[in-house]
Batch of 2 targets.
Target 1
Amino acid sequence: MPNNHGICFVSHNRNKLVEIRQLVPDGFDIYGLEELGLTEEIPETGNTIEENSALKAQYVYDRYKIACFADDTGLEIDALGGDPGVYSARYAGPANNSVKNMELVLKNMEGEENRKARFKTVITFIDKHGQHHSFEGIVQGQILRAPKGTKGFGYDPIFQPVGYKKTFAEMTLEEKNRISHRSKSFNKFFSYLNSVDE
Ligand code: IMP
């Protein structure tokens, strides 16, 4: 495996960068947009999670021609036709307010018997040659009728994964990471990185 492969993570979120650096295989150097000097917001104008993750990575590749990756996550609820999906962060309005987003989901699902839902993360990695590689992680579950638990973030208190009696918000970070959409997609991505010898 090559040493010190620099890969840009297309995100302004420093916490995510720190987390991902701890998980990435040895020999890969993950750096953020700050290190590139890119401060502007990258437009997320896609209609799907796949499109948005590809758009974000392509934006950086077009400008710098470097290896980079972006991730995008959404909660897809069958009874809501796949919503909030790509709009998960801003379902109840432009501000990212988790409580309001969850309240709106619960309101829109009042009286609904079909509670099936899934979290989906898509990572798009663009290699130094401009080739796209995508890695998907899905966790199936159901939307409860009221929030339960205080850990985690976003929609965690109303999402109960299949096979569990507790929500993501009642799990420790370790428990959640063992089964989560995000860790599944990142594990696939990192196995891929480990397997390529450019
Ligand atoms: P992002 O693409 O990772 O920024 O995620 C978009 C939105 O999806 C977030 O603002 C959250 O509302 C929601 N979300 C993403 N991952 C999770 C999760 O693990 N639990 C709960 N909500 C999540």
Target 2
Amino acid sequence: MSLEITVGDSVPDQAVLLGIPVFEGEDFGSRVELLRPPDRVDTSYIEKLGFTAKLNETLVLTMANRIYLLVGLGAREDFSLDTLRRGGAVFGRSLHRISDAALVLPRELAELNGDEEQSSSHPSWQALVQTLSEGMLLAAYSFTSFKSHPEPEMVQRIKVVLEDSVSAEPGLSKARLMATATCRARDWVNEPAASMTPVRFADIAVQVAQEAGLSIEVWDEKRIEEEGLGGLLGVASGSARPPRLIKLVYDPKTDHKTEGAVNTVALVGKGITFDSGGLSLKSQEGMATMKTDMAGAAAVLAAMSVLAELGIQLKVVGILPVTENMPSGTALKPGDVLKMRSGKTVEVLNTDAEGRLILADALALAAEEDPTAIIDLATLTGACVVALGPLVAGLMGNTDWLCERLETAAERAGEPLWRLPLPRQYKSHLLSDIADLKNIGKPGGQAGALVAGLFLEEFIDGKPWAHLDIAGPARSSEVEGVMPKGATGFGARTLLELLSTWSNPEVS
Ligand code: BES
Ligand code: ZN
Ligand code: ZN
């Protein structure tokens, strides 16, 4: 499906379907009649049909030559921009094969309170159109590359009708970039590991860099060894396919002379193109979805692909360690000791805790850039999925201002995350008998997500750093909100929201 959204101040004649957002428990009939006085009909039957305008509920009414689709937004007092994003997704999915539709954004939405994002607490038309359009664009996604008989491609046109369409236009442009980035990440993650190899992912990164005005360096296995990336090399040693280390740089070349400080943000993404567990082999069930284990790298590359178009005024460095994790005669063995980029040694007691080994090297490289902040995204632990479930990412970090900014950005992006602690007391869980650290904590996986976070913290050289464990929301087993089944592209929009509202941190 390719979706063309426009904004305007009247309903076009060719729009055979008209969406009308409505709140729970309000008079829906009068809303319809207001829009189309000549069609005045008895709509008192709406409630008899059981439609109450809860979020995710829709009702189709046909009158004269037009179809009306009432889109439930839930209770008025619970309204937020994310409600509208979800409403947009529900609307988009209800259109099926209708090629021309419109949706009316009533003025009262711009007058509602209860939106955390706006300082004035009223959402702007721009913000309303952005989130609504994001919802529609994100819901229109499908991955059909491997279908013998995909649904024929069709163009769908949706006009968002509102009073102040001129001021809303930038919201639409931003929505397009947010959705483009998210859907790029989804495509890369959905592609099977047989074709999405480390070399292939690096080739994609080169192409993205060219198109998006980024500079790029790709290290092959020889360079990876020369540079002392023992973690990445160790994990890759069981695989027939060579690893890659990708470094991307976005530099807007403006003089960031604000108080003399040049802000550089380093983004690190876990890029395991397939996680079999290695010799500590996963179960059949645990392995089935492990092509998703490069979702962190995909989210970072996808976000970086639109930085220039979004006009981001920061230097952004992306570091992506990419490899398979496979068992073989040359594979890493439990008990092996690796020497990492930072010089620390790690005893590998479980080869399935591989993400932290490749991230350790990538984080050390990121720290060498002397960035203002480092953020990593990784499908790191099953323990985080147990703690927070499939929809919420875990956030850990050593710097409150950074974590708080990420919380705000995630809220805006509609990507839920929850802060988890990094308890100093658990550092001892990572002590090895023979090396500086081991790669797993206590038996039974106690505080597994936190111990993984504490392990990463050993490699950031004291820089401001935050870690997003996206093991749960990187993939969805059902359609939920703006998420499709399969890869979700989680994290790209949070990064973009964060970077587009970045200002110099007040660090003492
Ligand atoms: N890639 C997995 C984590 C994962 C699990 C992601 C489920 C998505 C869904 C990671 O490499 C892993 O296997 N972690 C181990 C760590 C353990 C051995 C300490 C885990 O969580 O079981
Ligand atoms: Zn693993
Ligand atoms: Zn993994």
